[in-house]
Each structure stands twice: as C-alpha cells, then as structure tokens.
Write a sequence for this structure.
C-alpha cells in the first residue's frame, strides 16, 4: 500500500467536490418547481449534494484521510459542501501555503439549525425533560379520559397520534378536545398527528366451518374479496381484502401474514385467488388464522392508489383538525402530489401549514424516498416515519437495521425530522417487564428527532424509562457524531 500524500488527497478531494457540486446542481434542476417553500431551498440543495456524495465509494479516500489525521467525511449529512470546503482549506494551506479560510460557525452549522427548526415546526418544541421528542398513539379510551391526556402532557410528551383506522369523527373530536383541555391545565399543548389508514392489505373473512389453524408445509387458500366460497373445501381458507395485490402474485412469490408471523409461498394461481404453502411461522399447534391481520407481498409488484375513498372522506375532518397528516402506503412523488392537491382543496388558504409525515413501509417507498421527500417538504413541513413493522416484513428483518440507518441519514441530509416507530419498548408497554434487546433498540432511537410509543397498560412507566435512556444516550451521541463526554464508570 502506497503512503498517502497531502497533495494526492488534495487532488482527489477537489475532484470529489467538483463532481458533487455538478451532480447536485443537476438533481436540484430536475426537482425544479417542486421546491416552493423558500426556507427549504437550501435544505434541498444540501440533500442533492448528499445524494451525489453517497453515490460514490468514498472509503479509499476516507481511509487515506484518517491516516493523515484529517477530519472524517462520515458526518457530513447536514453540511456536505461546508465539510468538504473546510478540509480543502486545511489541505491547501498545508500544501501551497494558502491562507486558511475558516467558515463561520453559523454558516457551517446552518443545516443543523434548519433541521432543529423544522422538527420544532412539525412536532413542537422539546419538553424541558426531553432529549428526543416522544409521540404516543392514543387508545380509544383517551377520548373521554382527561386525566390520561393531562398525564401525557405532564410527562413531557410532545405529540399524540390518532390512528384513523379506528373510531370516527366523533371519537377523534373528543380526543382532540382532551388534548386542548390538557393544554389549558398544563400550559403545554401537544401536537396532533392523524394517520390515514391507506389501502387495507389485510386478511378479512375466514371460512368458519373449516379448521382455522395451518401447519408447516400445509397448503392454504387465500381468496380474492368475495371469493372465499370458491376456495377448495379440502384446505383452510382466508380472504385478502386487497384484490390488486393478490391478482399480481405469481408462483414462487412470498406472502406474509400477521407482520410476518406466518410465511407462505405461492404454489399456483386460481380464478378465485391463490394457493400457498406454509414455509415458516407455524409451531406445533399450527398458526391460528385471524381476520384483520396485515398481509405483505414483498416479491410482488402491484399498483394500488395510496389514497382510498375512505381516506378522501376522512380528509374533510383531518385537514382542519390535525397539525400533521401521516400518509400511509405512500410510494411515489405522484402520491404526494395527489394528497397535496386534496389538502389544497380542503384548506385553500393555509393548507401549507399542515405537516405531512411520509410513512416508509415498502421497498418501493424506499426507492422513491428522495423524490417523495422533496415533493412533500418543498410545499409544507414534512417528516419521515420509519414504519418498521411493515418495512421489516417487506425488505426482510436482516436488512431493516441497515435501512433504518440509511433513512436516518437521508432525513438529516434533507434537514427534516425522522420518527422512529413501531414496537419501541413493546414488551415493557404490555407487561411492565422489558426484554434485553428492546432497551438497546430504544437507545438507538436517540438519533431520531421523535420516538413513537404505542398504547399499553405500562405506558406512563415506559415514557419515564425512555426519557432516561434517551437522556443518557444524548450525552454520548448526536446523530452519528460521538460527543465524547467524560466516562466516569471506571
């Protein structure tokens, strides 16, 4: 291995900067008139530079820089060109004797400042005891429980989530009234996020006269809506609520049921649906089939509108009463544009004040995330939710850890908040007894701007424990940057 020289590294770094600036400019040009919010223009440009930067293999250059004691490029997300320029200035001074030009702190850290402002706009200010914002999914009982909502506010919860897959306008209105009452009592008003359900890729009817359990290697019939009666009597049968997905499934494609608890593969297609074989997930008793469980088609490419007729009807309420809309099953920038058009019709004068949260649940959404994010944040406050339940099933549990890192990096580069969601402290919420792994998982959530907790009998205890974990982790880590606080354990 040849020894790196300052001159060689300077040349390679100048070449890299030129390519990143050129390619980033082309990307911003392609985004064109999507960027209507003036305060997002600088963020979009840095985002474009980051995408160009990460399309290249920086590892050989990075290793040579480390050997020379130069600053790492691994923390450039929110400030791509300022980071490159700072290192270039040092190298030019060392190689050519050029005067060192230091960037002013407010300019170098401008991306972090914008990111913090964007998080506060959409998710509210951090509570005094908070290190990352907390969002809680409201149970149905919260509609009539003033003490519950007041306790959330007292504990410093910054936002609440209303899942519109459950309840109706009346129940949601009562929940919102409780939020406002809690604000009057505590002086802290929690942000209200409302989740559009999106297409129902779920199980529905089960053939009741047949055994409802399926065993490993057994065949199972999955029928189209309304076709359950046509499935063979010789096998267990269940209905899938989304015809488009089932009609696109081919032999060999995997179909997962109940967040991946039952894994199957398609054996053959039939006019009424498909026959699948169980390949994992059934214990000695077999897997018990249930209605209203999620169904995932990770190998199947199908198209279905992201907004259902039910979602459109809900928008008449949501657009006026929510602080932000959570967009389920969004998969393209066209989906984002369609929702924004509907919001503009509902609230023509000030729909841009509404936040828009992109729930990343599928591999297609991951592929299209940059364009979706710019289309959203270019017109209104935006955030990314890592919907880890569906996403893990779609891309595989092995890839989830890698992908949630990439989504965190993209959010930081675009200077928009990221919400870490699904199964955070799930065991603790249900039983009051944590698992070893879930607190490690919760600690990693400190790199996001917001962590979402679901409902459970031990919710308040979980909030206090999570605050403690996030507070301790914030002393060690900010995004990807070690804080190097003194260690006093030894």
């Amino acid at each position: 291995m040849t020894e790196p020289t300052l001159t060689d590294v300077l040349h390679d770094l100048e070449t890299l900067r030129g390519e990143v600036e050129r390619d980033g400019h082309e990307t911003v040009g392609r985004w064109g008139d999507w960027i209507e919010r003036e305060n997002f223009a600088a963020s979009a440009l840095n985002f474009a530079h980051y995408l160009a930067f990460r399309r290249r293999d920086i590892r050989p250059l990075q290793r040579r820089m480390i050997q020379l004691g130069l600053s790492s490029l691994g923390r450039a997300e929110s400030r791509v060109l300022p980071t490159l320029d700072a290192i270039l200035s040092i190298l030019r001074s060392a190689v050519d004797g050029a005067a060192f030009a230091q960037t002013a702190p407010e300019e170098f850290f401008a991306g972090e400042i914008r990111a913090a402002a964007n998080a506060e706009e959409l998710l509210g200010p951090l509570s005094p005891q908070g290190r990352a914002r907390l969002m809680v999914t409201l149970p149905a009982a919260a509609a009539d429980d003033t003490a519950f909502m007041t306790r959330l506010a007292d504990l410093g919860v910054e936002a609440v989530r209303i899942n519109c897959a459950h309840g109706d306008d009346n129940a949601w209105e009562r929940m919102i009234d409780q939020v406002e009452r809690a604000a009057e009592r505590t002086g802290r008003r929690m942000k209200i996020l409302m989740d559009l359900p999106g297409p129902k890729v779920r199980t529905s009817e089960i053939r009741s006269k047949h055994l409802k359990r399926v065993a490993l290697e057994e065949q199972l019939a999955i029928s189209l809506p309304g076709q359950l009666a046509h499935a063979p009597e010789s096998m267990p049968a269940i209905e899938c609520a989304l015809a488009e997905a089932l009609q696109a499934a081919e032999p060999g494609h995997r179909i997962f049921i109940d967040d991946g608890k039952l894994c199957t593969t398609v054996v053959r297609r039939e006019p009424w649906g498909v026959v699948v074989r169980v390949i994992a997930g059934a214990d000695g008793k077999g897997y018990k089939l249930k209605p209203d469980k999620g169904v995932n088609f990770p190998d199947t490419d199908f198209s279905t509108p992201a907004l259902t007729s039910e979602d459109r009807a809900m928008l008449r309420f949501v657009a006026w009463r929510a602080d932000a809309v959570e967009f389920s099953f969004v998969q393209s920038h066209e989906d984002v544009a369609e929702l924004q058009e509907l919001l503009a019709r509902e609230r023509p004068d000030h729909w841009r004040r509404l936040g828009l949260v992109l729930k990343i649940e599928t591999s297609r959404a991951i592929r299209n995330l940059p364009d979706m994010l710019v289309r959203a944040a270019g017109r209104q406050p935006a955030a990314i939710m890592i919907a880890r339940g569906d996403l893990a099933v779609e891309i595989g549990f092995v890839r989830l850890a890698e992908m949630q890192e990439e989504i965190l990096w993209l959010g930081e580069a675009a200077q928009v908040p990221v919400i870490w969601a699904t199964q955070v402290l799930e065991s603790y919420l249900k039983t009051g007894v944590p698992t070893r792994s879930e607190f490690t998982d919760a600690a990693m959530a400190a790199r996001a701007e917001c962590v979402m907790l679901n409902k459970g009998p031990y919710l308040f205890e979980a909030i206090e424990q999570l605050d403690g974990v996030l507070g301790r982790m914030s002393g060690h880590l900010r995004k990807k940057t070690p804080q190097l606080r003194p260690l006093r354990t030894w």
In short: The chain has 18 helices and 19 strands. The first strand starts at residue 133 and ends at 137.
